């Protein structure tokens, strides 16, 4: 555990993926799923590498857990639309 993040070979070091604060939640989650990311930096505008926030799996799970849906089977659809 004393190694640096880079030496431990964790994280994504090339082709950094980001979303903007105006991106849809659907797009952000789809990016996380297709790219196998546990989090994605949120940037002010496209092509910016200056993050203003981070969206992570825990944020998505919290949203799923606290969003009310009439039918639990539709919960994912409700949040993603």
From TrEMBL:
Source organism superkingdom: Eukaryota
What are the CBS domain coordinates in residue numbering? 10-73
Statement: the UniProt record of this protein carries the keyword Membrane: no
Q: Does the keyword Cell wall biogenesis/degradation apply?
A: no
**What keywords appear on the UniProt entry?**
CBS domain
> Which protein is depicted?
CBS domain-containing protein
Origin organism is Plectus sambesii
């Amino acid at each position: 555990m004393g190694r640096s993040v880079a030496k431990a070979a964790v994280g994504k070091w090339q082709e950094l993926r980001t979303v903007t604060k105006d991106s849809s939640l659907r797009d952000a989650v789809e990016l996380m799923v297709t790219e196998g990311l546990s989090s994605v930096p949120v940037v002010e505008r496209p092509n910016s590498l200056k993050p203003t926030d981070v969206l992570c799996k825990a944020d998505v799970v919290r949203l799923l857990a606290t969003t009310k849906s009439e039918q639990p089977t539709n919960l994912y659809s409700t949040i993603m639309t």
